[in-house]
Amino acid sequence: AVTAYIQQFLGQAGGQRGNAIALARTVLQRRLASSLGAIRSSLLKRAARIGERIRDVEALPAHERAAKLAEYRLIPDLDSEQDPDDVTEENESAAVEGVVVAETLDAMRVEVRELERLIAQADAAIATGQESKLAALRDCLDRSELRSLHEDGRAKLLIFTEHRDTLEYLERNLRDWGYSTCVIHGGQPPTARKEIQQQFHQDKQICIATEAAGEGINLQFCHLMINYDLPWNPVRLEQRMGRIHRIGQEAKCVIFNFCATNTIEGHLIILLLLKLEEMRKALGGRVYDVLGEVLQHNGLDFERLVRDTLLNPSLRDPAAEQIEEITAEALLDYERMVGVAQATKNVDMSWVREHDWTSEERRLMPEYVEGFFLRACQQLEVRLERRVDGLWRIEHVPAALRSDRLSAVQRLDRPQKSYRKLTFLKEQRARAEHEDAVLLSPGHPLFAAVTESLRHKLAGVEGASAVFAAPWASEPYAIHFFVHSITGLATSGRPEEVFAEIAAVADAPHGFEHAPADVLHDLTPVEDARCEPPETAHLRAAEDFVRLRVQQPKVVAERAQRLKQAEIRSAYLMKALDAENRRLEASWLELDHRVSSGEENARIALDAAVRRREELGRRRQEKLRGFEQLGIVKPGPLAYLGSALIVPPGGVDEKAAAAMHNDPQVELAAMAWAMAEESRAGWDPEDVSQARDGSGFDIRSVRRDDQGRIADVRRIEVKGRAPAHGDVSLCRTEWIAARRHGDTYWLYVVYGAKSGSPRGVKIRDPYAKLHDHVRKVTHVTSFYIPGDAIEAAA
Fold first, then answer.
1. Three-class SS state of 711
2. CB neighbour list of residue 736: distance below 8 Å, 6 or more residues apart
3. How far apart are CA 675 and CA 691, in angstroms?
4. For residues 218 and 246, is the Cβ–Cβ distance under 8 A?
5. Is the pTM of this model over 0.90?
6. Is residue 169's pLDDT more than 60?
């Protein structure tokens, strides 16, 4: 009945008027496929608007009515070519209500009567509860795949719809069926959406959402989805799935797509989905993640195909034929031309996993971030308070930290006036009850403002020296800290800083040594101790050491890495542009032939094709020149930060002192034993003890499967002891790393390391097994572990 109404009262027309009418038809068809609630609302609004206009015209003198009717027939400001998935509720209402086709009052009255008849028909259908799509939803909720929604209080279901009216319609019905619900739509501000997201996570079974939840919201705590309405742009379907099917999802995702196959658009959508399923094997299991590329390389604009077929139903069979002609080869041929298929086929996922491990190991430990921020707030007199739930709060952020004079504010935005809930740990932030907490880390506006203000306050101590106790020190020595950088040229030719780091130089008795820059984490300040700054000549020698032994090797490595990247990117660019050039050349030859045959209306397209080829050539040259510049790398500035005088720990009992003492030769022997032991066990160990990256262990050992792929990893901290029994200690970084890495972290204690028969004691997950026996040494940052506890844990 609705389709018949559309054909009778919103018939096709030409020009701008025809485009506006077409948009109104499209909106009504989409709402019709969405729900009875949505189409009823649209018909009701249209009837009310036309009735209002009838009354307005009837109130005018007879001689003014024609002009008023003509005014109503003017086309509203609508973009008929707008992507249907981007049309807002306001756009839809304007399309449905604003387009008047009837030319007389009598015609308008006839249309209102037909609209009222349709509304009554919709009311009757809703009253009987016999809407097939709503019934399908109820049946779907009873399926075994969604059983966890009833049995598991943590299971969550996300339902996507295209329209607010349908959203409200579903919400009413779902609540009547006994489900707890919440809704997300574009009419809500972003802050409200985040609060609703938290409600969904904590205590709601079902969230009904429009496209407002399709992007920018992480809902991976949910693994069930129903697409109650399918978008005409199939790429949007993948975006929706990406809300729950993403890295970090621990459950199997179950997704239902509702498709009304007895409608034109539903018929075409189901044909497309079936065709994609048919091509799944040829695409190597890929479907939705390459959907846009498949359609692009097959030259199919699916949205326009649906829209054109709705306007002219006689095109239904030709449209189905176009979908049937889609092939996987169109995409695969392109990928072969640009090398993508070969690259993806041969990707070594073990390499990816290894780099992922490395990234996690080198991540700045949040415990240090938290400790720094707490001390910074004390220095700046910012009142940071611990909450009952273990998180933090700042009731008032001082105006100085929100000042526009701070470069941090200019760069990252102004901090809020208060923070009721702060955490430094991602694990805390991931819990449902803490979703409204702010994760504080470097890069956050508040953290940056505090850091900058602290540096201003402490500017006078740059280049100074201080005394620290180290658990491993047996005699005093100094460590000097510098910051150095490497500069280069971007592909645009602009200078850029490509690398920067802090370098530490230990002033050892036999000369300078490169020390780990994060050594300060494991040092304890000695209160009220004073020391003189190093002599200028000595510092210059240390600077020369940094330039030669630290900065220059980094320059060489960075240059090699950037040249390798330039080579890869240039090769890929050449293949991609060659493929594009062949496509443009084929188009140009066809257009040139048409113009030569006398088809003058193709001349404009021919000129455009010529310009595109010329532009492609210019782009090629610019890109290649830019890649050539990537290899231009040189040392940047080097600046002295300050020095630490390292002294042996005082006030420590003999047992703890003995446990902290490390004999370099014993440690080397213990490392050799551990490396050999791993190799004998079939693992592939790597000595990372000299990496100076703050990872908190000495050996990364991996186990490979039959195909040579990495299957497992161990992070091993090695402690060597000359006696056959004894205590050991871990520094703070090692103990935190043990807690962070859990059962992938191992402690190997090698007793009698230099004897003819060393004995190794292996403890997996030492934090879990030993934390009840560990004693923190207060005079120096170290964790003392009794030998008896080590033997028992092993």
1. strand
2. 365, 367, 696
3. 16
4. yes
5. no
6. yes
